[in-house]
Amino acid sequence: MTKILIIDDESAIRDVMAASLRDEGYHAQVAHDGESGLAQLREFQPQIVFLDIWMPGHMDGIEVLNRARQEFPQIEFVMISGHGTIETAVKATKLGAWDFIEKPLSMEKIFIVISNILSFLQEKNEKSALLNKLRKSIALIGETSSIVQIKQLISRVAPTQSWVLITGENGSGKELCAQNIHYMSPRASRPFVDINCEAIAEDLLEAELFGIEKGALPGVDKTRKGKIELAEGGTLYIEEITEMNAQVQQKLLRFLQEKKFTRTGGKELIEADVRIIASTPRNVENAVKENKLREDLYHRMNVSPFQVPNLKERKEDIPTLISYFGDMFSRDSGEIKKVFSEKAIHDLKQYGWPGNIRELKNFVERVYILTPGEFVDVHDLRFAGLGEGPESSYDVNEISSFRDARAKFEKDYLVKKIQENSGNISRTAEMIGLERSYLHRKIKAYGIDVN
To answer: What is the C-alpha separation between 348 and 394, in angstroms, rounded?
Structure first.
Protein backbone atom coordinates (compact mmCIF):
# COMPACT_ATOMS: atom_id res chain seq x y z
CA MET A 1 0.00 0.00 0.00
CA THR A 2 1.33 3.43 -0.95
CA LYS A 3 2.22 5.50 2.13
CA ILE A 4 1.45 9.23 1.99
CA LEU A 5 2.29 11.77 4.70
CA ILE A 6 0.53 15.15 5.05
CA ILE A 7 2.43 17.87 6.94
CA ASP A 8 0.20 20.92 7.51
CA ASP A 9 -0.65 23.11 10.53
CA GLU A 10 -4.33 23.39 9.48
CA SER A 11 -6.20 20.45 11.01
CA ALA A 12 -9.16 20.75 8.59
CA ILE A 13 -6.89 20.32 5.56
CA ARG A 14 -4.99 17.44 7.20
CA ASP A 15 -8.17 15.57 8.11
CA VAL A 16 -9.98 16.05 4.77
CA MET A 17 -6.90 15.05 2.72
CA ALA A 18 -6.16 12.02 4.90
CA ALA A 19 -9.78 10.80 4.78
CA SER A 20 -9.98 11.25 1.00
CA LEU A 21 -6.70 9.41 0.46
CA ARG A 22 -7.76 6.54 2.71
CA ASP A 23 -11.02 6.26 0.79
CA GLU A 24 -8.94 5.72 -2.36
CA GLY A 25 -6.92 2.94 -0.71
CA TYR A 26 -3.81 4.89 0.29
CA HIS A 27 -2.18 4.59 3.73
CA ALA A 28 -2.22 8.20 4.98
CA GLN A 29 -0.64 9.74 8.09
CA VAL A 30 -0.53 13.36 9.27
CA ALA A 31 1.81 15.76 11.11
CA HIS A 32 1.03 19.27 12.37
CA ASP A 33 4.43 20.99 12.06
CA GLY A 34 7.96 20.65 10.71
CA GLU A 35 9.52 18.86 13.69
CA SER A 36 6.77 16.26 13.99
CA GLY A 37 6.85 15.91 10.20
CA LEU A 38 10.55 14.97 10.24
CA ALA A 39 9.86 12.49 13.04
CA GLN A 40 7.04 10.92 11.00
CA LEU A 41 9.29 10.70 7.95
CA ARG A 42 11.71 8.55 9.94
CA GLU A 43 9.03 6.40 11.55
CA PHE A 44 6.38 6.12 8.80
CA GLN A 45 8.76 6.11 5.78
CA PRO A 46 6.25 7.30 3.16
CA GLN A 47 6.73 7.30 -0.62
CA ILE A 48 5.00 10.69 -1.06
CA VAL A 49 4.75 13.76 1.20
CA PHE A 50 2.40 16.73 0.87
CA LEU A 51 4.19 19.54 2.68
CA ASP A 52 2.77 22.95 3.61
CA ILE A 53 5.21 25.82 3.14
CA TRP A 54 3.94 28.26 5.79
CA MET A 55 3.89 26.59 9.21
CA PRO A 56 4.47 27.91 12.75
CA GLY A 57 7.49 26.87 14.80
CA HIS A 58 11.20 26.73 14.10
CA MET A 59 10.91 25.14 10.67
CA ASP A 60 8.78 26.14 7.70
CA GLY A 61 8.15 23.81 4.75
CA ILE A 62 11.21 24.94 2.81
CA GLU A 63 13.48 24.13 5.76
CA VAL A 64 11.81 20.73 6.22
CA LEU A 65 12.25 20.03 2.49
CA ASN A 66 15.90 21.06 2.61
CA ARG A 67 16.65 18.70 5.51
CA ALA A 68 14.46 15.85 4.28
CA ARG A 69 15.91 15.72 0.76
CA GLN A 70 19.36 15.07 2.26
CA GLU A 71 18.13 12.35 4.64
CA PHE A 72 15.38 10.83 2.47
CA PRO A 73 16.37 11.26 -1.20
CA GLN A 74 14.00 8.47 -2.29
CA ILE A 75 10.84 10.32 -1.09
CA GLU A 76 8.91 12.61 -3.44
CA PHE A 77 7.64 15.92 -1.99
CA VAL A 78 4.69 18.01 -3.20
CA MET A 79 4.57 21.53 -1.75
CA ILE A 80 1.22 23.12 -0.84
CA SER A 81 0.52 26.73 0.16
CA GLY A 82 -2.17 29.40 0.23
CA HIS A 83 0.39 32.19 0.09
CA GLY A 84 2.74 30.91 -2.57
CA THR A 85 4.79 33.03 -4.91
CA ILE A 86 6.64 32.14 -8.07
CA GLU A 87 9.91 32.73 -6.21
CA THR A 88 8.92 30.23 -3.49
CA ALA A 89 7.79 27.66 -6.04
CA VAL A 90 11.09 27.97 -7.94
CA LYS A 91 13.08 27.62 -4.70
CA ALA A 92 11.13 24.49 -3.72
CA THR A 93 11.66 22.96 -7.17
CA LYS A 94 15.39 23.63 -7.00
CA LEU A 95 15.48 21.83 -3.65
CA GLY A 96 13.90 18.78 -5.30
CA ALA A 97 10.14 19.18 -4.86
CA TRP A 98 8.06 17.25 -7.41
CA ASP A 99 5.30 19.88 -7.75
CA PHE A 100 3.71 22.93 -6.15
CA ILE A 101 -0.07 23.07 -5.49
CA GLU A 102 -1.91 26.19 -4.34
CA LYS A 103 -4.70 26.25 -1.77
CA PRO A 104 -7.64 25.81 -1.78
CA LEU A 105 -6.68 22.25 -2.69
CA SER A 106 -8.38 20.26 -5.42
CA MET A 107 -8.48 16.55 -4.56
CA GLU A 108 -8.79 15.81 -8.28
CA LYS A 109 -5.46 17.51 -8.91
CA ILE A 110 -3.91 15.78 -5.88
CA PHE A 111 -4.92 12.36 -7.22
CA ILE A 112 -3.48 13.23 -10.64
CA VAL A 113 -0.17 14.25 -9.02
CA ILE A 114 -0.09 11.03 -6.97
CA SER A 115 -0.77 8.97 -10.10
CA ASN A 116 2.06 10.71 -11.96
CA ILE A 117 4.49 10.18 -9.08
CA LEU A 118 3.60 6.50 -8.74
CA SER A 119 4.04 5.97 -12.49
CA PHE A 120 7.45 7.64 -12.26
CA LEU A 121 8.47 5.54 -9.24
CA GLN A 122 7.35 2.34 -10.96
CA GLU A 123 9.38 3.17 -14.06
CA LYS A 124 12.34 4.13 -11.87
CA ASN A 125 12.14 0.84 -9.96
CA GLU A 126 11.84 -1.15 -13.19
CA LYS A 127 14.91 0.61 -14.61
CA SER A 128 16.78 -0.01 -11.38
CA ALA A 129 15.87 -3.71 -11.47
CA LEU A 130 16.97 -3.98 -15.11
CA LEU A 131 20.24 -2.23 -14.35
CA ASN A 132 20.91 -4.55 -11.41
CA LYS A 133 20.16 -7.57 -13.60
CA LEU A 134 22.43 -6.17 -16.31
CA ARG A 135 25.22 -5.50 -13.81
CA LYS A 136 25.04 -9.14 -12.69
CA SER A 137 25.12 -10.39 -16.28
CA ILE A 138 28.30 -8.43 -17.06
CA ALA A 139 30.00 -9.11 -13.73
CA LEU A 140 33.77 -9.59 -13.79
CA ILE A 141 34.25 -13.16 -12.56
CA GLY A 142 37.27 -14.13 -10.47
CA GLU A 143 39.07 -13.42 -7.21
CA THR A 144 42.77 -13.45 -8.12
CA SER A 145 44.65 -10.31 -7.09
CA SER A 146 44.93 -8.98 -10.65
CA ILE A 147 41.17 -9.09 -11.32
CA VAL A 148 40.36 -7.78 -7.82
CA GLN A 149 42.55 -4.75 -8.57
CA ILE A 150 40.62 -4.15 -11.80
CA LYS A 151 37.30 -4.34 -9.91
CA GLN A 152 38.58 -1.85 -7.33
CA LEU A 153 39.80 0.49 -10.06
CA ILE A 154 36.40 0.33 -11.79
CA SER A 155 34.57 1.14 -8.54
CA ARG A 156 36.77 4.22 -8.08
CA VAL A 157 36.66 5.45 -11.67
CA ALA A 158 33.04 4.68 -12.60
CA PRO A 159 31.40 7.48 -10.55
CA THR A 160 33.75 10.09 -12.06
CA GLN A 161 33.61 11.74 -15.48
CA SER A 162 37.22 10.91 -16.40
CA TRP A 163 38.15 9.36 -19.73
CA VAL A 164 39.55 5.85 -19.70
CA LEU A 165 42.07 3.96 -21.84
CA ILE A 166 41.89 0.17 -21.51
CA THR A 167 44.70 -2.06 -22.73
CA GLY A 168 44.93 -5.84 -22.81
CA GLU A 169 45.10 -8.83 -25.13
CA ASN A 170 42.22 -9.74 -27.43
CA GLY A 171 39.56 -11.71 -25.59
CA SER A 172 40.72 -10.61 -22.12
CA GLY A 173 37.57 -8.62 -21.31
CA LYS A 174 38.26 -4.99 -22.27
CA GLU A 175 34.70 -4.36 -23.46
CA LEU A 176 33.34 -5.97 -20.29
CA CYS A 177 35.42 -3.50 -18.22
CA ALA A 178 34.02 -0.61 -20.28
CA GLN A 179 30.45 -1.84 -19.72
CA ASN A 180 31.08 -2.14 -15.98
CA ILE A 181 32.39 1.42 -15.83
CA HIS A 182 29.31 2.69 -17.66
CA TYR A 183 26.68 0.71 -15.74
CA MET A 184 28.23 1.59 -12.37
CA SER A 185 28.30 5.29 -13.24
CA PRO A 186 25.66 8.05 -13.01
CA ARG A 187 25.28 7.60 -16.79
CA ALA A 188 23.94 4.03 -16.38
CA SER A 189 20.43 4.88 -17.60
CA ARG A 190 21.79 6.59 -20.71
CA PRO A 191 23.13 4.85 -23.88
CA PHE A 192 26.25 2.71 -24.05
CA VAL A 193 27.40 2.93 -27.67
CA ASP A 194 30.42 1.17 -29.16
CA ILE A 195 32.42 1.58 -32.35
CA ASN A 196 35.17 -0.74 -33.60
CA CYS A 197 37.71 1.27 -35.64
CA GLU A 198 39.25 -1.86 -37.13
CA ALA A 199 35.91 -3.01 -38.57
CA ILE A 200 35.17 0.25 -40.43
CA ALA A 201 36.82 1.43 -43.63
CA GLU A 202 39.26 4.27 -42.97
CA ASP A 203 37.46 6.75 -45.23
CA LEU A 204 34.12 6.10 -43.49
CA LEU A 205 35.30 6.23 -39.87
CA GLU A 206 34.93 10.01 -39.44
CA ALA A 207 31.32 9.93 -40.64
CA GLU A 208 30.52 6.94 -38.41
CA LEU A 209 31.93 8.71 -35.38
CA PHE A 210 30.83 12.32 -35.93
CA GLY A 211 27.93 11.95 -38.36
CA ILE A 212 27.57 13.36 -41.85
CA GLU A 213 25.60 16.21 -43.38
CA LYS A 214 23.20 15.71 -46.26
CA GLY A 215 25.03 15.95 -49.60
CA ALA A 216 28.51 15.77 -48.05
CA LEU A 217 29.25 12.64 -50.08
CA PRO A 218 27.62 11.09 -53.16
CA GLY A 219 24.56 9.08 -52.15
CA VAL A 220 24.13 10.79 -48.78
CA ASP A 221 20.58 12.08 -49.20
CA LYS A 222 19.93 12.94 -45.54
CA THR A 223 21.83 14.06 -42.47
CA ARG A 224 22.96 11.16 -40.31
CA LYS A 225 23.93 11.25 -36.67
CA GLY A 226 27.23 9.70 -35.66
CA LYS A 227 28.08 7.54 -32.67
CA ILE A 228 28.87 10.56 -30.51
CA GLU A 229 25.40 12.03 -30.94
CA LEU A 230 23.80 8.63 -30.39
CA ALA A 231 25.67 8.33 -27.09
CA GLU A 232 24.41 11.70 -25.77
CA GLY A 233 24.41 11.68 -21.96
CA GLY A 234 26.01 8.23 -21.91
CA THR A 235 29.25 6.52 -22.85
CA LEU A 236 31.00 5.92 -26.18
CA TYR A 237 33.33 2.91 -26.20
CA ILE A 238 35.96 3.12 -28.96
CA GLU A 239 37.56 -0.26 -29.71
CA GLU A 240 40.95 -0.47 -31.42
CA ILE A 241 41.64 3.26 -31.14
CA THR A 242 45.13 2.79 -32.63
CA GLU A 243 43.42 1.81 -35.92
CA MET A 244 41.91 5.31 -36.15
CA ASN A 245 43.67 7.50 -38.72
CA ALA A 246 45.52 10.68 -37.71
CA GLN A 247 42.83 13.06 -39.04
CA VAL A 248 40.05 11.43 -37.02
CA GLN A 249 42.29 11.22 -33.95
CA GLN A 250 42.86 14.98 -34.20
CA LYS A 251 39.12 15.64 -34.45
CA LEU A 252 38.46 13.35 -31.47
CA LEU A 253 41.10 15.20 -29.44
CA ARG A 254 39.40 18.50 -30.23
CA PHE A 255 36.09 17.07 -29.05
CA LEU A 256 37.66 15.89 -25.78
CA GLN A 257 39.01 19.39 -25.22
CA GLU A 258 35.95 21.42 -26.21
CA LYS A 259 32.99 19.00 -25.93
CA LYS A 260 31.96 20.23 -29.39
CA PHE A 261 32.32 18.84 -32.90
CA THR A 262 31.11 19.25 -36.47
CA ARG A 263 29.60 16.55 -38.64
CA THR A 264 31.45 15.51 -41.79
CA GLY A 265 30.69 18.16 -44.41
CA GLY A 266 29.10 20.45 -41.81
CA LYS A 267 30.01 23.79 -40.24
CA GLU A 268 27.67 23.94 -37.26
CA LEU A 269 29.32 23.27 -33.89
CA ILE A 270 27.36 20.60 -32.00
CA GLU A 271 27.76 20.28 -28.24
CA ALA A 272 27.63 16.79 -26.72
CA ASP A 273 27.90 15.36 -23.21
CA VAL A 274 29.58 12.00 -23.78
CA ARG A 275 32.11 10.05 -21.77
CA ILE A 276 34.80 8.38 -23.89
CA ILE A 277 36.30 4.99 -23.06
CA ALA A 278 38.83 3.60 -25.54
CA SER A 279 40.74 0.34 -25.82
CA THR A 280 43.57 -1.28 -27.73
CA PRO A 281 45.40 -4.63 -27.57
CA ARG A 282 48.62 -2.83 -28.52
CA ASN A 283 51.37 -1.58 -26.26
CA VAL A 284 50.37 2.09 -26.21
CA GLU A 285 53.87 3.47 -25.74
CA ASN A 286 54.99 1.58 -28.85
CA ALA A 287 51.85 2.75 -30.69
CA VAL A 288 52.81 6.37 -29.92
CA LYS A 289 56.37 5.79 -31.16
CA GLU A 290 55.05 4.18 -34.34
CA ASN A 291 52.64 7.12 -34.91
CA LYS A 292 49.64 4.81 -34.52
CA LEU A 293 48.38 6.95 -31.64
CA ARG A 294 48.82 10.70 -31.23
CA GLU A 295 50.85 11.46 -28.11
CA ASP A 296 48.57 14.31 -27.03
CA LEU A 297 45.48 12.10 -27.49
CA TYR A 298 47.20 9.34 -25.51
CA HIS A 299 47.85 11.67 -22.59
CA ARG A 300 44.26 12.95 -22.75
CA MET A 301 42.81 9.44 -22.71
CA ASN A 302 45.25 8.00 -20.20
CA VAL A 303 43.69 9.84 -17.25
CA SER A 304 42.60 6.48 -15.83
CA PRO A 305 44.70 3.71 -17.43
CA PHE A 306 43.56 0.07 -17.24
CA GLN A 307 45.68 -2.99 -18.01
CA VAL A 308 43.36 -6.00 -18.19
CA PRO A 309 45.22 -9.21 -17.24
CA ASN A 310 45.26 -12.13 -19.64
CA LEU A 311 44.00 -15.55 -18.58
CA LYS A 312 47.53 -16.90 -18.10
CA GLU A 313 48.00 -14.31 -15.34
CA ARG A 314 44.86 -15.44 -13.49
CA LYS A 315 44.76 -19.22 -13.94
CA GLU A 316 43.37 -19.71 -10.44
CA ASP A 317 40.14 -18.13 -11.71
CA ILE A 318 39.68 -20.84 -14.36
CA PRO A 319 37.51 -23.18 -12.18
CA THR A 320 35.26 -20.25 -11.22
CA LEU A 321 34.98 -19.15 -14.86
CA ILE A 322 34.18 -22.71 -16.00
CA SER A 323 31.40 -22.91 -13.41
CA TYR A 324 30.05 -19.50 -14.44
CA PHE A 325 30.04 -20.30 -18.17
CA GLY A 326 28.53 -23.70 -17.39
CA ASP A 327 25.69 -22.00 -15.49
CA MET A 328 25.10 -19.71 -18.46
CA PHE A 329 25.04 -22.52 -21.02
CA SER A 330 22.84 -24.75 -18.82
CA ARG A 331 20.37 -21.93 -18.33
CA ASP A 332 20.24 -21.06 -22.03
CA SER A 333 20.16 -24.61 -23.40
CA GLY A 334 18.25 -26.42 -20.66
CA GLU A 335 21.08 -28.95 -20.23
CA ILE A 336 22.14 -30.25 -16.82
CA LYS A 337 25.25 -28.57 -15.44
CA LYS A 338 28.37 -30.72 -15.84
CA VAL A 339 31.06 -31.52 -13.28
CA PHE A 340 34.71 -31.27 -14.37
CA SER A 341 37.18 -33.73 -12.82
CA GLU A 342 40.26 -32.51 -10.92
CA LYS A 343 42.47 -33.81 -13.73
CA ALA A 344 40.36 -31.95 -16.31
CA ILE A 345 40.63 -28.73 -14.30
CA HIS A 346 44.39 -29.30 -14.00
CA ASP A 347 44.75 -29.66 -17.77
CA LEU A 348 42.62 -26.58 -18.39
CA LYS A 349 44.90 -24.59 -16.09
CA GLN A 350 47.99 -25.86 -17.90
CA TYR A 351 46.72 -24.82 -21.34
CA GLY A 352 47.97 -21.42 -22.58
CA TRP A 353 44.59 -19.90 -23.65
CA PRO A 354 45.91 -17.56 -26.37
CA GLY A 355 42.33 -16.41 -26.95
CA ASN A 356 41.87 -15.63 -23.24
CA ILE A 357 38.38 -15.52 -21.65
CA ARG A 358 36.64 -15.59 -25.03
CA GLU A 359 38.40 -18.83 -25.99
CA LEU A 360 37.62 -20.41 -22.60
CA LYS A 361 33.93 -19.51 -22.90
CA ASN A 362 33.69 -21.02 -26.40
CA PHE A 363 35.54 -24.14 -25.26
CA VAL A 364 33.22 -24.70 -22.27
CA GLU A 365 30.21 -24.45 -24.60
CA ARG A 366 31.85 -26.93 -26.97
CA VAL A 367 32.46 -29.38 -24.11
CA TYR A 368 28.80 -29.14 -23.13
CA ILE A 369 27.75 -29.88 -26.70
CA LEU A 370 30.09 -32.84 -27.20
CA THR A 371 30.05 -34.52 -23.79
CA PRO A 372 26.94 -36.72 -23.41
CA GLY A 373 27.26 -37.37 -19.65
CA GLU A 374 27.25 -35.07 -16.65
CA PHE A 375 30.94 -35.72 -15.82
CA VAL A 376 33.77 -34.16 -17.84
CA ASP A 377 37.18 -35.86 -17.77
CA VAL A 378 40.47 -35.43 -19.61
CA HIS A 379 39.41 -37.52 -22.62
CA ASP A 380 36.36 -35.27 -23.05
CA LEU A 381 38.65 -32.24 -23.23
CA ARG A 382 40.74 -33.98 -25.89
CA PHE A 383 37.63 -34.90 -27.85
CA ALA A 384 36.57 -31.24 -27.75
CA GLY A 385 39.97 -30.27 -29.16
CA LEU A 386 41.87 -28.81 -26.20
CA GLY A 387 45.31 -27.71 -27.30
CA GLU A 388 45.02 -29.07 -30.84
CA GLY A 389 45.57 -25.76 -32.58
CA PRO A 390 43.41 -23.15 -34.25
CA GLU A 391 41.58 -25.69 -36.43
CA SER A 392 39.82 -26.88 -33.28
CA SER A 393 38.89 -23.42 -32.02
CA TYR A 394 35.41 -23.15 -33.47
CA ASP A 395 33.09 -20.33 -32.53
CA VAL A 396 29.84 -22.01 -31.43
CA ASN A 397 27.90 -18.91 -32.49
CA GLU A 398 28.62 -19.84 -36.10
CA ILE A 399 26.88 -23.22 -35.74
CA SER A 400 23.12 -23.15 -36.15
CA SER A 401 22.01 -26.22 -34.18
CA PHE A 402 23.13 -28.81 -31.65
CA ARG A 403 23.01 -31.54 -34.32
CA ASP A 404 25.24 -29.53 -36.68
CA ALA A 405 27.69 -28.82 -33.87
CA ARG A 406 28.05 -32.48 -32.90
CA ALA A 407 28.36 -33.54 -36.54
CA LYS A 408 31.07 -30.95 -37.22
CA PHE A 409 33.23 -31.92 -34.28
CA GLU A 410 32.59 -35.66 -34.73
CA LYS A 411 33.66 -35.55 -38.37
CA ASP A 412 36.85 -33.57 -37.61
CA TYR A 413 37.67 -35.96 -34.75
CA LEU A 414 37.26 -39.04 -36.94
CA VAL A 415 39.34 -37.53 -39.77
CA LYS A 416 42.14 -36.78 -37.32
CA LYS A 417 42.10 -40.27 -35.75
CA ILE A 418 41.98 -42.01 -39.14
CA GLN A 419 44.98 -39.93 -40.27
CA GLU A 420 46.85 -40.84 -37.08
CA ASN A 421 46.33 -44.50 -37.94
CA SER A 422 47.35 -44.03 -41.59
CA GLY A 423 43.85 -44.85 -42.83
CA ASN A 424 43.62 -48.19 -40.98
CA ILE A 425 39.92 -48.39 -40.04
CA SER A 426 40.23 -51.43 -37.77
CA ARG A 427 43.02 -49.87 -35.72
CA THR A 428 41.12 -46.56 -35.55
CA ALA A 429 37.93 -48.27 -34.37
CA GLU A 430 39.86 -50.12 -31.66
CA MET A 431 41.66 -46.95 -30.52
CA ILE A 432 38.52 -44.81 -30.16
CA GLY A 433 36.31 -47.61 -28.79
CA LEU A 434 33.84 -48.02 -31.67
CA GLU A 435 32.58 -51.08 -33.51
CA ARG A 436 34.25 -51.31 -36.94
CA SER A 437 30.89 -51.47 -38.71
CA TYR A 438 29.63 -48.43 -36.84
CA LEU A 439 32.77 -46.50 -37.76
CA HIS A 440 32.26 -47.43 -41.42
CA ARG A 441 28.72 -46.06 -41.26
CA LYS A 442 30.01 -42.79 -39.80
CA ILE A 443 32.68 -42.53 -42.50
CA LYS A 444 30.03 -43.00 -45.17
CA ALA A 445 27.60 -40.57 -43.52
CA TYR A 446 30.21 -37.81 -43.31
CA GLY A 447 31.73 -38.53 -46.71
CA ILE A 448 35.23 -38.99 -45.24
CA ASP A 449 37.89 -39.94 -47.78
CA VAL A 450 40.00 -42.78 -46.31
CA ASN A 451 42.10 -43.45 -49.41
So the answer is: 17
pLDDT in tens, 44-88: 999 999 998 888 777 888 888 888 888 888 899 998 887 766 777
Q: ω before 372 within 30° of 0 (cis)?
A: no
How sure is the predictor about 337, in pLDDT bands with cuts at 50, 70 and 90?
A: very high
Q: Beta 3-7 vs 27-31: how paired, if at all?
A: parallel
H or E stretch at 167: strand 164-167
Boundary-marking domain end, from 284, 309, 334: 309
Beta-carbon contacts of 428 under 8 Å, excluding residues fewer than 6 positions away, are 414, 417, 418, 420, 421, 439
% of the chain at pLDDT higher than 70: 94
Range of the domain at 125: 3-129
Query: How many structural domains does the chain have?
Result: 3
Residue 193, strand partner residues: 236
DSSP class of residue 134? H
- Whether the predicted pLDDT of 399 surpasses 70: no
Residues 283, 147: one domain?
yes
